[in-house]
Amino acid sequence: MDSEQAILAFAALAQSTRLDVFRLLVEQEPHGLPAGEVARRLAVPHNTMSTHLAVLARTGLIASERQSRAIIYRANLPEVGELARFLLQNCCGGRPEVCAPLIAELSPCCPPATSCEPVHD
């Protein structure tokens, strides 16, 4: 990921409804949600939601797939990972022991060997 792509992603997420949409879609992985359900859950008019979904899709942070008559939206987790790697690529000047707590905070919900379900303390 280059700086321009990162700036576009952050700009898309810098609007409250789009940030809410993105977070909702991340919660719904791996199944995603139909566009109408996203609009309903966030109490946003359908035409307004379409615009927000289009902005997020152009950045690559979300993807859509037609299933019968519905369009299902999902978070594009590989792209989200690229964005996180972009932010952390030079983390702590090559001193991994300084970055370890940050990395640990980023991975509490999805241990690699299990499904992606939240860990409850």
TrEMBL record:
Domain of life: Bacteria
InterPro entries (UniProt xref): ArsR-like_HTH, HTH_ArsR_DNA-bd_dom, Metal_resp_trans_reg, WH-like_DNA-bd_sf, WH_DNA-bd_sf
Residues in coiled coil: none
PROSITE patterns: HTH_ARSR_2
Domain HTH arsR-type: 1-95
Keywords for the protein's UniProt record, in alphabetical order: DNA-binding, Transcription, Transcription regulation
Pfam family, one: HTH_20
Record-linked SUPFAM superfamilies: Winged helix' DNA-binding domain (SSF46785)
Family annotation (NCBIfam families): HTH_metalloreg
Protein name: Metalloregulator ArsR/SmtB family transcription factor
Organism annotation: Ancylobacter koreensis
